[in-house]
Amino acid sequence: DAYIIVVEKMQGLLSVSSERQKERTAYHILNEYVQRSNGRGSNVYIVHRLDRDTSGLMMFAKDEKTQRTLRDNWHEIVTDRRYVAVVTGEMEKNAGCVISWLTSPTDDGGQKAITHYRTIKRANGYSLVELDLETGRKNQIRVHMQDLGHPIIGDGRYGIEDVNPIGRLALHAFKLCFYHPVTGELMKFETPYPNEFKKLFLKK
User: Which tens digits make up the pLDDT trace of 144-184?
Assistant: First the structure.
């Protein structure tokens, strides 16, 4: 009866709490729902995380064996994982790739990070960019957009803090495709990007 649950996490919600942050999280909310539906003792297991300020699709496992399978074989199982972001400035309307070595906890020169990007639209001093992760390093997209000179709006850490017209980080995980680890079936999930992103590109 092993299976996977894919949910859409709202911006501002932690994926899972740490020892420092014991607040309600996407994990707590989903776990409570599963226990109400399937009885106490039913749990979910987190497979991957999204930053607090990033919204979009997240995957949870229904048992520990499925969680381990997904984590250990992530790059073979996940076929497509894409984000959309609103960045400052009007990027050239083309596709490209950013490759860099991001800092890692151990002194090994960092971890190779690869992000493919494509500009979808430009208007009003912003660009809507689709991002395809070849690797999944911490803060990879935010660092790579900064490297390109087009930081994500609302990103106080890797961007320009006062450029925040929608009051949030404009980064959304909109597509997730993977092979089911038990049945082998290709599963495809997609969610529209937030309305507040769209409003930034309306004609003024």
Answer: 999 999 999 999 888 877 788 999 999 999 999 999 988 89
User: Does the annotation count 51 as an active-site position?
Assistant: yes
91 alpha-carbon distance from chain centroid: 21
Q: What is the pTM of this model?
A: 0.88
What is the spatial distance between Cα 167 and Cα 182, in angstroms, rounded to a whole number?
Answer: 41
Catalytic pick from 51, 72, 107, 162?
51
Q: Is 169 exposed, middle or buried (0-12, 13-18, 19+ CB in 10 A)?
A: buried
10-19 contacts, C-beta under 8 A, 24 or more apart = 10/55, 11/52, 11/53, 11/54, 11/55, 11/168, 11/169, 11/194, 12/52, 12/53, 12/168, 13/52, 14/52, 15/46, 15/49, 15/50, 15/52, 15/58, 16/46, 16/49
Helix (H) or strand (E) holding 202: none
Q: What's at 10, amino acid-wise?
A: M
How far is 79 from 201, CA to CA, in rounded Å? 30
